[in-house]
Every structure is written in C-alpha cells, then in structure tokens.
Design goal:
Length: 549
C-alpha cells in the first residue's frame, strides 16, 4: 500500500537508526537530522535498534567479558530496558502507525545489512527512502546489489536530506538531487555529483527523540548522563585501517571542499550553552576523530572558554599530540578521561603498513607526560591486521608494558572496512572476499591469512588475553598462552587470571590505586626488560601489504 499524504498534516519523516546492540550514547547524526527536519516544519520520529537484544552482536559487555572494561548492568546501573521482541515486526508497526512520507537512514558498514533487512519488511508499502552514511559513501555501487535500496546519499548528508525533503514536499522527483544516487529505468545507477560541504558552524543537533535513559553511559567506574559533541569534522591523518581518509578523498575527488573543518570557539561556547539548557548533561563526549589534532593555541583557547562549564569530558586523540602545558590545562577545566590509539607496537609495521610514524620511545615519553598530568587514560589496540604475525602482536604487548599509568586496555580485532587501504590489501592477497560486508565490530576476525601470519582463531584468542600478557610477569605467560584456547582448561585459566586482573588492576573506579605485578610500566625483574622483535618485513612483504595510490 503506497503511503498517501493527508492535506491537513505535516510532511512526516521517520529516521531509522540501525545500531549495534547497546552501543551507547545517542547518535549525533540523528540529532542533526532531527534539527534540520524540524526546521523544515516536518513531523519527525525515530526508530532505533540499540536496545534490541542480539546475542551475536558486539556490545560494551564484550569489553567487560574480556577484562577490558569495568562491569556494569544495563538495567540496574543504566536504567535501560533490553528489548527481546522482534525488531522487524516492531519496525513495520512503527511505520504503519506513523505513516511517514520519507524514511531516512544513516548507516555504517557494521549495520548496513540490518538496515537492508528492516527496509525489506516494508518494501510493499512503497515509501520513499534515503540511505546515507559512511558505508554508502565508501561503497555506493555495492549498496545497489540489494534490490530494496532505491536511493542513497553519498557524502555529507545534511544538505542532501534537506533538499530531498523539500522536493518531496512539493511533489517533485528526487532523482536529480545533488549527492543522490538511484536506480535508473534501465537498471543502471544514476549518479549525481555531491553538493558543496556544509559550514559545520551552522549545524547543531536536537536529541529530543532519544529517551532519557539512552544518555546514560559508564565511564571510569561511574555512570554519567552523556551527550556527544562535535568540535571537529574529519581527521588530518591517513591511517590505512580507518575510513576517515576515504571521506576526505571523496570530497577532494568531487571538488566539494576540504572535509577537515573545526567549529570556532565562540560557536562551541554558544552550542554548549544551548545543549546544557536543552539536555542538562553531566558529561560531554567529544566525538572528534582526534581532538588534539589542532593548533596548540586553539587548545588553550578552548580550555579558557570551557572554564564557564567545567563539565567532565572525554575524547580520543593521539599520544604525540599531548604536551605538558595542555595536559595540565585540560585537567583543570574538567578532562575526566582520554582514549589513545597506538594500535601496533612494531615500529616497522606501524610506519610502513599503518602509516603511523611515531617511534616507540616517543610514544612512551608522551605517555609519561600524560600520566604525570593526573588525567586517567585508556590505551586502544588493534590486532589481526593484514600481514600481521604473532611476533608483531607481542611487540604491541611489549610496548604497552612500558607505558606508565594507563587505566584500561581495549583490544579490537581489525575490521576490513570498505574504503580503507588495508581492506584493499586483504582482498588483493586473497585473504578476504571482495563482496564481504562487515558485521558486528570486534567480534571475530574476517581475514583468512596463511602462515606465518596470525590465523583467525589465534586472533580471537589473543583478543581475549592481551590485557593479561600486558599485566602479568613473563613467568606467567605460558599459562596465559594456554588460556588463549577456549576449551575447558583454557577458559579455566582465563577466568583465573582475569579475576586477579580485575581485583588488582581493573578496580571499581579509575582513580582507585592499582596493584602492579609485572607490566604496566613496572618491571618486576630483569626478565621483564623491554624487548623488540627482530622479525622484519622483507621488501616483497612490504610491497604485498601496501596499495599504491
């Protein structure tokens, strides 16, 4: 049944937010689209999948299971009711009840297939839809392999969604809207060039479609009402495992502007005042790819401005961007925690394959500065890169064991996202089917690599035990290696070491004193001295692990 608008009601837009199970903090994209559509005098509603139970999906509880985060309870601690209902039935009911004139979905690769399945449940209703986000931008042609997909937005979505709504409200076609790709009458793909990039200083979100409990997030052993905040769009770095460089490249190829943009300090101040008045947050999460990748002067200007608020906040950045004066000032104005990605501890691999140049000693010295500031921090690692060996991963362990003062350690499994250089490497070497669409981040390696590279099963075992290698003395490593195997004996050993780790190191609060045993910057004996692998990639191996632009 084709939806027919009533002349006496507003144009209705349903925002579809497919999300991994319990990936918390409201979506900034949803907030932005809510604001833009409301400004167009549309009725806006939301269907999200965050709270629908998924036993196979990634969630913050995976981090808890592998001793990478403090334990918490969704219902007791966060007040979130887990839904065990059929989300596909619920989605169709939502559509029938709301009767939208347009459905807008913003997707990343991990949930694109979920979005497809949801749209298939209402295909018979013939409601126009627009699917955008990182995945349609990176792999627009791949999207049309799914018959239910009729229109996608490639690139930045704000102006595209706005123009599509204007056209539909007027009864005009949307097939020629800048940034829209769609099927043509001959079964091919009609590709419209992207519109110019927006001025993000004029963009602010509206989170009113999210329930109160969806703002609750565990952080450092506490629960905060957390609101996401964008100060910087894009990333200046070119890491080969990340799809942010892809977005920058697409904008450059299309000639639509520089994807790297920062909001001015005065705009940030105004937006923070508005956000606090509207949502009464306890905590800000600055979602920028690398918060401190900005001029030093601007860091201090931000801190001076933030004196007005002093809400605790958290951000992601790189250790080489931290310097004593900035750390001290950030601490003074409320910085509660920082997350750092170092990813890999082998210098050669990190520089030549991942395109991250700082040396290990430089990273260690940066973390000394960070530790001395008194700001708690977490260290983020990725394992299972194309061409990575067990020796490379143990180099990562060695580097982490030389870092003073980190609070938690998170270990992710490499995800071969569309648009990344390392996905192309994996496909080129036959380690990944080109048609593969990622699903459920951090849950399992998708690569099938031959020796001497690390196997998928070995990657899974190392992801579960890496914090233990980093913490315990090397005298315990034989047992920890046995714990990598998920059989009865291995799981018994894993639980044994995780219990000690949680009790002594991963304590209830990030400010609680930790008991150090072997690693984490505290060498207990000469056998724990720093060691760097002599296993070097050959020129032929390096060539196989790079993609020439």
């Amino acid at each position: 049944m084709k939806n027919e608008r009533q002349n006496d009601r507003k144009f209705r837009v349903l925002i579809l937010y497919p999300n991994l199970y319990m990936m918390l903090v409201p979506s900034l994209a949803v907030g932005i689209f809510t604001r833009l559509l409301s400004d167009l005098d549309c009725d806006v509603d939301l269907f999200e999948t965050t709270q629908y139970f998924d036993s196979d999906g990634s969630s913050p509880q995976n981090r808890v299971k592998f001793a990478q985060a403090r334990a918490f309870d969704y219902e007791k601690d966060l007040g979130i009711d887990i839904k065990h209902d059929n989300m596909f039935i619920d989605f169709r009911k939502k559509v029938l009840d709301f009767e939208p004139d347009l459905i807008v979905a913003s997707t990343v690769e991990d949930v694109f297939l979920q979005a497809v399945s949801l749209l298939e449940t209402i295909e018979d209703l013939e409601i126009p839809h627009l699917v955008g986000g990182v995945f349609p931008t990176a792999a627009p042609v791949r999207c049309f392999d799914f018959p239910v997909i009729t229109h996608i937005a490639r690139g930045e979505g704000e102006s595209i969604v706005t123009e599509v709504c204007k056209r539909l409200k007027q009864g005009d076609p949307i097939d020629n809207v800048p940034g829209v790709w769609c099927r043509d009458k001959d079964g091919g793909i009609h590709r419209n060039p992207s519109p110019p990039l927006i001025d993000i200083n004029h963009i602010r979100p509206d989170f009113r479609l999210f329930s109160e409990e969806r703002f609750h997030r565990p952080m450092g052993g506490k629960i905060f009402k957390t609101v996401p905040f964008e100060t910087y769009r894009g990333c200046p770095y070119a890491c080969t495992f990340c799809n942010s460089p892809m977005q920058r490249s697409v904008s450059k190829e299309e000639g639509v502007g520089n994807f790297l943009r920062r909001k001015t300090i005065d705009v940030l101040q105004k937006e923070m005042r508005e956000t606090i008045a509207a949502t009464d947050p306890e905590f800000f999460y600055f979602i920028d790819d690398s918060f401190l990748a900005r001029p030093k002067k601007e860091i201090f200007e931000f801190c001076d401005m933030y004196e007005e608020f002093k809400l605790p906040f958290w951000f992601n950045t790189r250790p080489e961007n931290c310097f004593p004066g900035a750390m001290k000032r950030l601490k003074e104005v409320g910085c509660f925690r920082i997350s750092f990605g170092i990813e890999c501890g082998n210098e050669q691999f990190r520089k030549n394959v991942l395109l991250r140049s700082p040396k290990n000693q430089e990273i260690i010295e940066s973390f000394k500065t960070i530790h001395e500031s008194g700001i708690p921090f977490s260290v983020n690692l990725i394992i299972g890169f194309p061409g990575e060996t067990r020796e490379h991963i143990m180099d990562t362990v060695e580097l982490v064991r030389s870092i003073d003062g980190y609070d938690t350690l998170t270990v992710s499994i490499f995800t071969p996202y569309q648009g990344t250089s390392l996905r192309a490497v994996a496909v080129k070497n036959g380690w990944l089917d080109d048609k593969t669409i990622t699903k459920h981040t951090t849950s399992k390696s998708l690569l099938q690599m031959p020796p001497p590279y690390v196997s998928s099963d070995d990657i899974d075992g190392l992801a579960a035990t890496l914090p233990l290698y980093c913490y315990f003395p090397k005298s315990e490593w034989d047992d920890i290696r046995r714990a990598e195997t998920p059989d009865e004996k291995g799981l018994e050993l894993r639980e044994h070491y995780q219990a000690i780790y949680r009790e002594n190191f991963l304590r209830e609060d990030q400010f609680e004193e930790k008991i150090l045993i072997g690693g984490t910057g505290c060498r207990s004996n000469p056998k724990d001295s720093f060691r760097v692998s002599e296993d070097r990639l050959t020129p032929a191996e390096l060539e196989s692990l790079t993609i020439n632009a």
